[in-house]
Specification:
With 169 residues, the chain is of the alpha+beta class. The chain has two helices and eleven strands. An eight-stranded antiparallel β-barrel has the order 1-3-4-5-6-7-8-11. The N and C termini lie far apart (53 Å).
């Protein structure tokens, strides 16, 4: 009887931990709502690639790895999304990482322009008289993936460029 009680207790503990572990992993794999609050912060670039035709989510094997072609000093660049308030717009900054290229200053940020994100995932970067539209594909607590809104038409379909980031802060 005592052995049976111990087995049931161990099984119960195991089930509780297994359920808790599943909840945490599914939360990390689910997109957050596309809101300004969820996007704000510093994001370090980890990948940039050309996807396959008609792959709007960047799930298929890339056709070209652009990130591997970057100079080492560009591989740890960041983008900072700063939330505005009632008097100021949302600002975005380009950040130089730990390794600076010639005539750059490591760990510095340069203000580029303004940004906006709507609930469908359309992200717009604006500077001077230019509006660059992107689509947020993944927005998780520690991961961001965006693609250019428009792609290049080919005989096989539309080909998109993707950029991936991890949260730095």
């Amino acid at each position: 009887m005592k052995t049976r009680a111990i087995c049931l207790w161990v099984l119960t503990i195991w089930i509780v931990f297994a359920c808790n572990s599943d909840d945490q992993s599914s939360q990390e794999s689910d997109n957050l709502a596309f809101t300004v609050d969820n996007l704000k912060g510093d994001w370090k670039r980890t990948a940039q690639f050309i996807g396959q035709a008609n792959d709007t989510l960047g799930n298929l094997e890339p056709t070209e790895d652009l990130f591997s072609q970057f100079e080492v000093c560009r591989k740890d660049d960041m983008i900072r999304y700063q939330k505005g308030d009632e008097q100021t717009e949302n600002m975005y900054f380009w950040g130089i990482g730990e390794i600076a290229c010639h005539s750059q200053i490591a760990n510095s940020f340069l203000e580029i322009g303004t940004w906006d994100l709507n609930e469908s995932g359309k992200l717009t970067h604006s500077y001077l008289d230019v509006n660059e539209p992107f689509m947020v594909v993944k927005l998780r607590s520690q991961q961001l993936q965006v693609r250019r809104e428009s792609g290049v038409e080919s005989a096989e379909g539309t080909i998109y460029e993707f950029t991936e980031y991890i949260r730095a802060r």
